[in-house]
Design brief:
The protein is mainly beta. Helix content is about 5%, strand content about 40%. It has a domain of about 230 residues: Jelly Rolls (Sandwich), CATH 2.60.120. It contains five helices and 39 strands. The strands form ten sheets. Strands 9, 10, 11, 12, 13 and 14 form a six-stranded antiparallel beta sheet that branches. This is Glycosyl hydrolase family 32 N-terminal domain-containing protein.
C-alpha cells in the first residue's frame, strides 16, 4: 500500500483509492486500489479502479484526486506515465453511475488533458489536486512539479536565474559547469471551462527550493462562525465564500518525506496565493550600505564587480548579489541572491513590495546550503530594503521559511503524502496520511505487505488562524472497550508505574500532566523541529531528561507524531502501559483515561 489518491463520499459511502502494487510488497506496477466504508473505520476491498491500459498511462497510474461535479458525478484525475515515460494528467469517469460502489471507470479517448508543456519538467509533473469551480465559472487544479531553474518563492512563472559566479570567474559556486541550474520546486495552476482543455495560469500558485513537491493539496478553511466546520471546495463558486475563507496549501517534500503547509489568502481574480506571515521581527538593524537595486541597463557582471569590490573594502559585511529576473511592471519585483562571506547560499525567496507603518519595503529570505542539508547551525538570513540603497539585516526573518524544515507540518513523525476531503454528512474536512515501513525490504517480503494508512483526522483552523488543528475522527471511539482511569498522582523524578486492569496491546489513551517546577526543564532547541522522530529514536526513553518515543496528539491537536514500532518483547499479553518520569523534577498526573481497542475490519470482502 502506498499513498492514498482520491478519497470522496458518494451515495452514502466513503471511497478510498490508493496506490497499490498487486504483485509484491514494494514500489512498482502501480494501480489505483479501491476500498469503501460507511464509518471510515471498517473497510471493504473492491477490484482496482484504474489500471495501466492506454498509451497515456501504460507505464503506471500514479497519484491524483477525486472531484464531484455540480451534477454529483464523480471524476478522477490522475497522473499517468505514458509510452515516453512522461508524466501526464488524465481523467476518468464512472462507467455506471447507478452503481454506488463505482466499481468500473472509463478513460476518455481525449486523454491526456494536461501535459507538461514549455517550462515544466515532464519527468517531475504529477499529483493533481481536487479540482474546484471558482466564482468565474472556471475549473482550477494544482499540479506538483519541478523545473530546471532555481525558483523564486512567489506566485509568478519562474524564468531563468543566474547562479552566483565564483569571484575567480570559474563559474557558479557549487556548480560543475556555468550552465548547470538548481531545481525550482513549484505548484502549477491550471484552468479549464470543461475539464477537457486546460491552460496554465499566468502565475504559479507557489514555489520554493526545498525538493520536489509531491501530492499538493489546496483547500479552504473557515475563519468565522463555526470555525471547526469544514468548507467544501464546491462552496467556492460563491464569491462571498471564496473571499471570506482562508486557504491551506500542503506539499509533500520528496527529499525530506514530510508534509508541510502554509495558511494564506487566495484571489480568484489574479490566481495569487499569499501565505500569511507567521513571525514578527524586531526593528531592522542597519548593517551596511550597498549599491541600489539594479536598473535593467546595468549588467549582472557589472553589478558583481561593484559588490565584490564593496566586500573587499568592508570586511565581514553582508553582501547581496543579484540581477533583475523579469520585469513585473505591476509589482516592480526583482530577484536577488544573498551572499555572505564564509557562507554558501543555496536558495532565496523574495516577497512583493509592501507597506508597513507607511514605509514601502521589500523583504528577502535566504537559506544556507548547510541548513538545507539538515545542519542545526543558523541557516536563515533575512534582509530588507526600502529602495534607498540600504539593505538591513533582519533576524528572525520577517517571513517564515514555511516550506522548509522551519515551517508548519501536519505531523512530526512518519506521515507523508497526505490527502484531505470534505465529509458532507458531518460537514468536516478529513485528512489521511500514509506511513511507510521502517524495517527492511526482506521483512516486507516475508510479511507480504508494506505501508499503512494512518487514522483519519478531522482538520480545522485554530481560532488564531495561524495553524491547523488535527484530531482523530470521532468514529474511532466506537472501537473502545474496557476502560480504566487514574487521577491526581505525583510521579517523582526517575520513577514509573504500570497502568493495569486492561489489555494495552491495542489501546487509546488520553492523559493530562502538570509540571509543578519548570526550573530544571530542558530548554527547547529549535533544531528538534527538524526531525522529531529521529530525535526520539536517538535519545530513547531510557535517557534521563531526554525525549521518549511516542505516537501522540498533543497541545489540543496542534502537534502530532506518528511512529512505526516493531516490538520484539512487548507482544500480545506481554505488552504493558507505563507512566514514567525520567526527568529531574516531580510531575503530576492530573487524569488518565485508557481504553482497550477492538480491531476494525480492514479490507474484508
Amino acid at each position: 500500500m502506498y499513498v492514498h489518491t482520491g478519497p470522496m463520499y458518494y451515495r452514502g459511502l466513503c471511497h478510498l483509492f490508493f496506490q497499490y502494487n498487486p504483485n509484491e510488497a514494494k514500489w512498482g506496477d502501480i494501480v489505483w486500489a479501491h476500498s469503501v466504508s460507511r464509518d471510515l473505520v471498517s473497510w471493504t476491498a473492491l477490484e482496482p479502479a484504474i489500471k495501466p491500459s492506454k498509451d497515456f498511462d501504460v507505464k503506471g497510474c500514479w497519484s491524483g484526486s477525486a472531484t464531484l461535479l455540480p451534477s454529483g458525478v464523480p471524476v478522477l484525475m490522475y497522473t499517468g506515465i505514458n509510452i515516453h515515460n512522461e508524466q501526464v494528467q488524465n481523467i476518468a469517469y464512472p462507467a455506471n453511475l447507478s452503481d454506488p460502489l463505482l466499481r468500473n471507470w472509463s478513460k476518455p479517448a481525449y486523454n491526456p488533458v494536461i501535459t507538461a508543456g514549455h517550462g515544466v519538467n515532464a519527468s517531475a509533473f504529477r499529483d493533481p489536486t481536487t479540482a474546484w469551480l471558482g466564482p468565474d465559472k472556471l475549473w482550477r487544479v494544482v499540479v506538483g512539479s519541478r523545473d530546471g531553474n532555481e525558483g523564486l518563492a512567489d506566485l509568478r512563472m519562474a524564468t531563468g536565474r543566474h547562479p552566483r559566479p565564483h569571484p575567480s570567474g570559474a563559474g557558479p559556486v557549487g556548480c560543475p559547469h556555468p550552465r548547470v541550474k538548481l531545481p525550482s520546486l513549484l505548484t502549477v495552476l491550471y484552468r479549464s471551462r470543461d475539464l477537457k482543455k486546460w491552460s496554465k495560469a499566468r502565475h504559479l500558485l507557489h514555489s520554493g527550493s526545498t525538493g520536489m513537491w509531491e501530492c499538493p493539496d489546496f483547500y479552504p478553511v473557515a475563519v468565522a462562525g463555526d470555525y471547526r466546520r469544514g468548507v467544501d471546495v464546491a462552496e467556492l463558486r460563491d464569491c462571498v465564500v471564496a473571499k471570506e475563507v482562508k486557504y491551506v496549501l500542503k506539499v509533500s517534500l520528496d527529499l525530506k518525506r514530510y508534509d508541510y503547509y502554509t495558511v494564506g489568502s487566495y484571489d480568484h481574480a489574479t490566481d495569487e496565493y499569499v501565505p500569511a506571515r507567521r513571525e514578527s521581527s524586531p526593528p531592522p538593524r542597519a548593517t551596511s550600505s550597498l549599491p541600489p537595486p539594479t536598473p535593467p541597463s546595468l549588467s549582472f557582471f557589472s553589478l558583481l564587480e561593484q559588490l565584490f569590490a564593496f566586500a573587499e573594502t568592508n570586511p565581514g559585511a553582508e553582501v547581496l548579489a543579484g540581477v533583475e529576473r523579469e520585469r513585473q511592471e505591476e509589482h516592480g519585483l526583482q530577484a536577488w541572491e544573498p551572499w555572505e562571506q564564509g557562507q554558501d547560499w543555496t536558495s532565496s525567496s523574495m516577497g512583493e513590495w509592501e507597506l508597513e507603518h507607511g514605509v514601502r519595503h521589500l523583504d528577502l529570505v535566504g537559506q544556507s546550503k548547510a541548513a538545507a542539508q539538515g545542519s542545526s547551525a543558523p541557516g536563515l538570513a533575512a534582509f530588507r530594503t526600502s529602495g534607498d540603497g540600504v539593505w538591513r539585516r533582519r533576524f528572525p526573518p520577517a517571513r517564515s521559511y514555511s516550506d522548509s524544515d522551519l515551517g508548519l507540518r501536519y505531523d512530526y513523525g512518519n506521515f507523508y503524502a497526505s490527502k484531505s476531503f470534505y465529509d458532507p454528512v458531518k460537514r468536516r474536512r478529513i485528512v489521511w496520511g500514509w506511513a511507510n515501513e521502517s524495517d527492511t525490504g526482506p521483512d516486507d517480503y516475508h510479511k507480504g505487505w508494506a505501508g499503512i494508512q494512518a487514522i483519519p483526522r478531522k482538520i480545522w483552523l485554530s481560532p488564531k488562524g495561524d495553524q491547523l488543528i488535527r484530531w482523530p475522527i470521532e468514529e474511532v471511539e466506537a472501537l473502545r472497550q474496557k476502560h480504566v482511569n487514574l487521577s491526581r498522582r505525583v510521579i517523582k523524578g526517575g520513577h514509573h508505574f504500570e497502568v493495569t486492569g486492561f489489555k494495552s496491546v491495542q489501546s487509546d489513551v488520553e492523559v493530562v500532566f502538570e509540571l509543578t517546577d519548570m526550573a530544571a526543564a530542558e530548554r527547547f532547541d529549535p533544531a528538534w523541529r527538524m526531525d522529531a522522530q529521529a530525535l526520539c529514536a536517538r535519545l530513547g526513553a531510557h535517557v534521563k531528561g531526554g525525549l521518549g518515543p511516542s505516537t501522540s496528539f498533543g497541545v489540543g491537536g496542534r502537534a502530532s507524531i506518528l511512529s512505526r514500532v516493531y516490538p520484539s518483547h512487548a507482544v500480545g499479553d506481554e505488552a504493558g502501559l507505563y507512566v514514567f518520569n525520567y526527568g529531574e523534577s516531580n510531575i503530576k498526573l492530573v487524569k488518565l483515561n485508557a481504553w482497550e481497542l477492538k480491531s476494525p475490519k480492514i479490507n474484508v470482502p
